[in-house]
Amino acid sequence: MPQRITLEAVNERLKAARIGVRVDKRGDRLSLRATFPPKPGSGKQKPHQQHLSLGIYANPAGLQQAEAEAKVVGGLLAAGRFDWNRYLTVEEKAVSSSVSEWEPIKLKFEQNYFATKGDTAATRLTWKNDYESAFKLLSGDATPESLHTAASATQANTRTRKRTVEKLQACAQFAGIEIDLSPYKGEYGRSSLKAREIPSDELIVEVREILQNPAWQWLYGVMACYGLRDHEAFFCEVSPVSPHSCRILHGKTGERVAYPLHPQWAIEWELWQIQKPNCSGKTYRDYGQRVSHYFNRRNLSFCPYDLRHAYAIRGTTQYKIPIPTMAVWMGHSPVVHLQTYQRWIDAATHEKVFFEAINNLI
């Protein structure tokens, strides 16, 4: 009795023979599906389910050919002798031969990143927005030259350039490549902050008074009083007991505690009476955008982050709180704090020296 030549019959015979390969119809063509070793240039490390295109039509003659090819491929896989180069097209071979040396490095870096940082919504967002975008700039050989090229591929003296260089430096260190990319960072952090006016305490109070929505007035207040990032205001709680500290439950840099500056703001505004705006979002960036949009709609003369900057400067220059302590309250490093607010710290120091000198003469 002649064998049936149908896709179902072919796969039944392959399964009965324990070939480990099946024939699939994709469009009007046939392909094989099995657990293959990684294709050259894929960046994958382990065998996984893949299709091998045969390029033959899904007709009776094609099915017979595909069945025979499945048996050959199954034998090669079983013996550990399967070689993709036998099946890749000329174009695919050209692509695989030109695959960047950075691909396996980037894959291992990604695996290490999530293994150490954890796989959360926040870490996935950071990976996508910072690391992934930076690593897309890497191509060719894994050399210092390609890192230099990638580091200079973004606009100078911008936040994007600064963050891109930081991620590329981390990748270089992971790959064991000795290189210093810091000169590419530019002057974004300090120069951009110097370029705009930080609101005075008086202006901060005045603006709060004109906000009629109680929920937004509360959010504005906690940002001003505790130096919160815009999204952190949605994930915090304020203690009703003196000193009315604010616990940030989660956010860009995780959990921390911040203290009110000025303390009377926390008391006068009763910030422990939480009234959060009715906003939703999937990411911290979504929440931050909600705040920015509100400031824009109200035509406020400064942006949300200026409240945070004002808090930092107030704490360091008016209250003389040590930089390491202020950095902890704000959820960043002392180095970042000093670099960002050096201008105001220097001005306060010079003023103090001046008045001490004058008083000594009196």
Automatic annotation (TrEMBL):
One biological process GO term for this chain? DNA recombination
What are the UniProt keywords, alphabetically?
Answer: DNA recombination
Q: Which GO terms describe its molecular function?
A: DNA binding
Q: Where, if anywhere, are coiled coils annotated?
A: none
Query: InterPro entries, alphabetically?
Result: DNA_brk_join_enz, Integrase-like_cat_sf
Name the record gives this protein: Integrase
Naturally occurring in which organism (per UniProt): Iningainema tapete BLCC-T55
Recite the lineage of the species: Bacteria, Bacillati, Cyanobacteriota, Cyanophyceae, Nostocales
